[in-house]
Every structure is written in C-alpha cells, then in structure tokens.
Amino acid sequence: QVQLVETGGGLVQAGGSLRLSCAASGRTSNAYAMAWFRQAPGKIREFVAAITQSTNTRYADSVKGRFTISRDSAQTTAYLQMDSLKPEDTAIYYCAASHWRSASIGDYGQARNHDYWGQGTQVTVSS
C-alpha cells in the first residue's frame, strides 16, 4: 500500500503562484507514476499533470506552460508548481499514484489507471 498526503493548497490572487507537494509513504516502489487531478464544484475530476519515475511528463492543455510537475530524487515526493494562476484553476487538487508501468504516459491521464489517492488540498484563486 501507498499513502499519499498533499500539502500546499491555499488562497491566492489571480496571476499568483502556489506549490503543491505530495508525500508518498509505505511501499513507495509501487508509485511508478504520480499525477495530479483536480475537481471543481459541480464538475467531474480532471487530469492536470503526470510524471513517471523516468521523469517523463504530461500536462493537460489547460495548464501547459503554467504548471510544472516534478519529483524528488528519492521518488517519494511529487510537486506541482502552479504559476500564472487563474480563477478557473480553483478546485480541490488530488495526488494519485500508479504501480502500472505503461509504455504510454498518456495512460496516466485517466483516473482509473491510478491505484492510490490522497485526500486532496483546496486551491482557491480569486479574481
């Protein structure tokens, strides 16, 4: 089992920045890929960004060029640097991890391909 804990959410003005962290514990070797998803009120959960242990990355079009996903060298913590934030980025952000070693990083854009989830952290961007 892998436990995930997100931190770093909060309230920020439009144009500002936040950095989210996701700390993994337990059998962290199972966290081959880590990803961020988000869910705004009344909307379905959507993919934000993913990164594999080999540091391949993928982003949703809506955040490309503004958000950066990374992992520490121990591969136990994932980060999401969010710059140029917009009010439409307001959501609960969830960290996810997958033990599955897919040849296509695109597969990690689907929530069903992740085994482990954090409890979420609120990000609110005011206009």
Question: What order do the helices and strands come in, and which of them pair?
Answer:
Layout: E1 2-7, E2 10-13, E3 18-26, E4 33-39, E5 46-52, E6 57-59, E7 67-71, E8 77-82, E9 91-98, E10 116-117, E11 121-126
Parallel strand pairs: 2-11
Antiparallel strand pairs: 1-3, 3-8, 4-5, 4-9, 5-6, 7-8, 9-10, 9-11
Largest sheet: 7 strands, mixed
H and E string: EEEEEEEEEEE
Number of strands: 11
How much helicity do the residues have?
A: under 10%
Radius of gyration: 13 Å
Number of helical runs? 0
Low-confidence residue ranges: none
Q: What is the 3D shape?
A: globular
Mean pLDDT: 95
Strand content: over 45%
Structural class: mainly beta
Distance between the termini: 40 Å
In short:
With about 130 residues, the chain is mostly beta strands. It has strands at about 1-5, 10-15, 20-25, 35-40, 45-50, 55-60, 65-70, 75-80, 90-100, 115, 120-125.
Task: Report what the structure shows.
The model has no long low-confidence stretch (mean pLDDT 95). With 127 residues, the protein is an all-beta fold. It has strands at residues 2-7, 10-13, 18-26, 33-39, 46-52, 57-59, 67-71, 77-82, 91-98, 116-117, 121-126. The termini are far apart. The strands form two sheets. Strands 2, 4, 5, 6, 9, 10 and 11 form a seven-stranded mixed sheet that branches. Strands 1-3-8-7 form a four-stranded antiparallel sheet, with no helix packed on it.
Provide tags for this entry:
127 residues; mainly beta; seven-stranded mixed sheet; four-stranded antiparallel sheet; 50% strand
